[in-house]
Design brief:
Layout lengths: L1 E3 L5 E3 L13 H12 L17 H4 L3 H9 L23 H12 L26 E10 L11 E6 L6 E9 L6 E9 L46 E3 L5 E3 L5 E5 L4 E8 L6 E12 L5 E7 L10 E2 L6 E2 L3 E5 L3 E9 L4 E9 L5 E7 L10 E7 L4 E8 L15 E2 L10 E9 L8 E3 L8
Parallel strand pairs: 9-12
Antiparallel strand pairs: 1-2, 3-11, 4-10, 5-8, 5-9, 5-11, 6-7, 6-10, 12-22, 13-21, 14-20, 15-20, 15-23, 16-19, 16-22, 17-18, 17-20
Helix pairs in contact: 1-4, 3-4
């Protein structure tokens, strides 16, 4: 803009932040934003339905990009900025939102190709460059199973690790993400009775809506290979959260020689029959790390006498999930998990000296995006991690399949869960099985 000074001299004042509307182009201004915040999902073979790698691909979506970013629908990010500090915050700055809006409003110009930053080299088919790829199970997902339900499936496969191995990242890659609700894995010692690649599950008595009926057998928990409880929550594939990467924390996980991998698969049929082939990619390090990454999971009570969301209740408070740290740890990761009726979730640290700290507040939970939030909080021994959550079982919840019934803890998306996942880093000599006490339904494994 221009201003006439008291001396009559024309002074040019250059505003900071977003460029002037007439100067905005894809190559110079918009592409860097897309590379940093959007192309992880918006590229071929990933979860987004359209690619934003090139001008030709992005140009038809200019107005939609403006609307989605102005409403902060995109990029998906739900943490309340008043609480916590997150290392992976990919929400857009106001100036970046303004740049996209100006670009859309002024004709969505391509600009000079010389202004474009170098294209990002995205791993083809993978978000990590795996050193080791383990072939997982192949499973036929029918178009319309009985009651439209496929129970959770457990499958064990050999890891192929012949010696103790420190893994630094994991990606579980289904061939058909559209029908994959989640896939979690855990490492277990091999036993002679394990049958590789043989799916097992537990049929549950369900009502006409497909919900498991309390009092007629278990409503939660898959069958365990060999009849024993097996660890199955080390790392998971979830929509919007496909990779577990410990390298950012200079840490790794130890997989003992000869371990098996047990996978827990949850498929959601969509009317098209597919055959899904799961692959698991690992990066590894030859040098033992100084720190060990441990994946953990807490839970509200699964008892139907306690966890029962009343019909039409728009703000039902769940019984909390709480664990106590029995070692000094660094809290580095949190991921709220609920289903269609999930409304909000808050992680609070209760320190031994009586002080409290909210380290994550998700006031508007969105089941469609299972986001993980990376942080760095030093947590002394004796601290409690207390997690609260609310559920919306009212007709006002557009995702609610039936506001007229009581909802219990269960595995299907139309049932409910209250699972706060979290990850910590400890010294490599600390026993991961002794880091927390409290309601931890799945043992932490390696």
């Amino acid at each position: 803009m221009f201003r006439i000074s008291a001396m009559g001299v024309l002074v040019v004042i250059v505003a900071s932040g977003a460029p002037n509307a007439g100067d905005v182009s894809f190559n110079k201004d918009v592409l860097p934003i897309l590379q940093k915040n959007c192309q992880t999902c918006h590229r071929p073979g990933q979860v987004a339905p359209m690619s934003f790698l090139t001008y030709k691909e992005a140009r038809p979506w200019a107005k939609a990009m403006k609307a989605a970013t102005l409403s902060r629908k995109m990029p998906p990010w739900f943490a309340d900025p008043q609480y916590g500090h997150f290392l992976n915050d990919h929400s857009l700055k106001p100036s970046e939102i303004d740049t996209i809006a100006k670009w859309a409003d002024t004709g969505a110009a391509e600009g000079n190709p010389k202004d474009a930053p170098p294209a990002v080299h995205w791993p083809e088919g993978w978000q990590i460059q795996p050193d080791v790829i383990v072939q997982g199970p192949v499973y036929d997902v029918p178009a319309h199973p009985k009651n439209d339900v496929i129970e959770w499936i457990s499958v064990t496969v050999p890891s192929g690790f012949k010696q103790d191995t420190w893994i630094t990242s994991v990606q579980i890659k289904p061939e058909h993400p559209a029908v994959t609700h989640h896939i979690c894995l855990g490492f277990n010692p091999h036993t002679l009775d394990i049958k590789y690649f043989e799916p097992t599950w537990q049929d549950k008595t369900r009502d006409e809506d497909g919900s498991a009926i309390p009092g007629r057998g278990p409503t939660f928990g898959p069958a365990s290979p060999g009849g024993r409880f097996r660890s199955m929550a080390e790392d998971c594939y979830l929509p919007g959260n496909p990779v577990a990467d410990y390298r950012d924390f200079k840490a790794a996980k130890l997989v003992p020689a000869g371990s098996d991998i047990t996978l827990n698969l949850h498929y959601t049929p969509n009317g098209t029959a597919v055959t899904d082939h799961v692959q698991i990619g690992f990066t590894v390090t030859q040098e033992p790390p100084q720190r060990r990454y441990v994946s953990l999971l807490s839970s509200s009570s699964t008892d139907p006498k306690v966890f029962a969301i009343p019909p039409k209740d728009g703000n039902w408070q769940s019984p909390p999930a709480e664990v106590t740290f029995t070692e000094d740890v660094e809290l580095v990761y949190m991921m709220p998990h609920m289903h269609f009726r999930g409304k909000d979730m808050t992680y609070t640290l209760l320190y031994p000296d009586g002080t409290k700290e909210v380290v994550l507040n998700v006031p508007h939970y969105d089941f469609n995006w299972q986001l993980g939030y990376t942080t760095s909080v030093k947590v002394p021994k004796g601290t409690k991690l207390h997690v609260d959550a609310h559920f919306d079982n009212s007709p006002n919840n557009k995702f609610n399949p039936n506001p007229n019934k009581t909802v219990y803890y269960g595995e299907m998306t139309w049932e409910e869960m209250m699972n706060p996942f979290f990850g910590v880093v400890v010294d490599k000599g600390v026993d991961p099985a002794k880091i927390v006490s409290g309601r931890v339904p799945v043992p932490p494994g390696a």
